[in-house]
Amino acid sequence: MRKKIIAGNWKMNKTVEEAVELANAIKLELGECTEVDVVICPPFTALKSVSDIVSETQVAVGSQNMSSEDEGAYTGEICHTMLKELFGPAFRRIPNTHEIYHNLYDMGDMGLPFVQGQRRGAWGVFVRDRLAVLLSPGDIHCGWADSDFSWYGPKGKPGCQGHHECIRMGVNLATYAMCH
Fold this sequence. Notes:
This protein has 2 domains: 1-64; 89-180, no CATH class. It contains 5 helices and 6 strands. It has helices spanning 16-30, 47-54, 80-87, 142-145, 160-179, and strands at 5-9, 37-41, 59-61, 91-94, 122-127, 130-135. Strands 1-2-3 form a 3-stranded parallel β-sheet, covered by helices on one side. Strand 1, helix 1 and strand 2 (37-41) form a beta-alpha-beta unit.
């Protein structure tokens, strides 16, 4: 059986200084931990500092967010090329053949459900070739809530089908997380 992953998303908590302090404490306590895989997801402003602190430890770092755009005037966003530069080979595109798309519900060749006008594929942070953090250009969780909300379907069409696709994808993600 594979090791469990313990991941912490810090959300909008910690200044860079506070994040550095916490990352140093995590490094001290869990830096050599081999019983579980440890992943931390600090706020964007602290990603580089935290990554540098834990770079030569067993602790992995993930991002909380990724824009659907490759570049442009999108205030506060971060794109996959920026994350690739920061995380290197641990950050990569998740192919539509990956188990998360087929482990319980077969999502076919479409990959991620169409959410918020986006279906551009997912990216992930991998720890020892195991997906630890999934980043998608659309918020899949938004598709779970309200089947009549127009973001969930193809342009201009309320997305009952998209709603069901999002729920199936969520089940696949939960199944993957529990089994890996």
